[in-house]
Amino acid sequence: MELLEIQPRELKFTFELKKQSSCTVHLVNKSNEYVAFKVKTTSPKRYCVRPNTGIVLPRSTCDFTVTMQASRTAPPDMQLKDKFLIQSTIAPYGSADEDIVPSMFSKENGRYIDESKLRVVLVSPPHSPALQPINGALKQEPVNEAPLVKEAPIMKEAPCLKEAPIMKEAPFVKESPIMKETPVAKETLVRKDYTPLNEVHDLPISHVKDFEDLKVKVINLESKLNEADKTIVILREEKSFAIQERDKLQQEVALLRRRCAAKVQVGFPFLFVVFMALVGASLGYLLRQ
C-alpha cells in the first residue's frame, strides 16, 4: 500500500565543479489520513534535505528540497551510488510537524512503514565544456570566466551544513540490503492497525463514543443557535413596537398642546366673574343690615 505518491522517482542533479545543485521532490497524499514522512540518505555529508521530516495533510501535497554540496572533483564516469529512502506512516489525526518523533518510524510496535527508494542521477549542464580525465580523475576544462571562482563561498552556508547531521542515521546504512527487495515483496506488507476514517462502524469503541459525543455537542450547539436567532427576532419586534408607542405618545402630547392653546381666551375667566358677583352680593347684603 503506497501512502504517498512521489514525483520524481529519480533525483537529477546538474553537476558543475565548485557549485551546489538542488532538486525538489513532490509528495502527494491522496488518502484521508495524516501521513508523516522522513528522508534518509546513504551519504549525509554530501546532501542537505529541507525539511527531512514533515506531515502531509489529507488530500494535499508537500515538497522538500535536496541540495548536493559543491565538489572540486567529478565522480568517476559521472555516476554516484548514493540513494535516498523516503519512509511514510499514518500519523494521528491533527498531527503537526513538531509532533513527529523517531518512534513513529519504528517497525517494532507493528506499525506499517511504507518505504520508497530513490537513486541519484547526475546531469551535465547545457552548453558547458565536456568533463575530461586528467591524472585519473575527471576535471572540467578551464573557462575564462572569473565568476566561477567567486562562487566558491557558496560551500560555506552554515544552515545547510548544520542540518546534514540530522539526516545521518546508522540504521539506514545497516539496512542497505533491504533496498534489494523486489516490488512484489514490498506490496505484501499490510498495516495491522490501519482503519479507514469513513468506516465508522469498524472503529474501536472509544472512537465510536468520541464520535457520538461530538455529534451530540454539534446538535446542542445548533439548538442554542436557533434559540439565539429566535431571541434576536423577538427583541427586534419589541424594539419596533416600542418605537411605535413612542411615536404615538409624541403625537398625543402634541395634540393636547394644541387643544390647550385653543382654549385660552382674552379677559377674565367665567368662574372669576361668578366669584366676584357672589362677593359683591354678600357685601351689599351686609351693608343693608
Automatic annotation (TrEMBL):
Q: Which residues form a coiled coil?
A: 211-259
Cellular component aspect of the GO annotation: endoplasmic reticulum membrane; plasma membrane
PROSITE patterns assigned: MSP
One short Pfam family name for this protein?
Motile_Sperm
Q: Read off the Gene3D superfamilies from this record.
A: Immunoglobulins (2.60.40.10)
Query: What are the residue boundaries of the MSP domain, all occurrences included?
Result: 3-123
- Report any one BP term from Gene Ontology: endoplasmic reticulum membrane organization
Keyword entries, A-Z: Coiled coil, Membrane, Transmembrane, Transmembrane helix
Q: Which domain of life is it from?
A: Eukaryota
Q: Which residues cross the membrane?
A: 266-287
Family, according to the entry, reads as follows: Belongs to the VAMP-associated protein (VAP) (TC 9.B.17) family.
Q: Which PANTHER family match?
A: OS01G0936800 PROTEIN, VESICLE-ASSOCIATED MEMBRANE PROTEIN-ASSOCIATED PROTEIN
**What is the official name of this protein in its record?**
MSP domain-containing protein
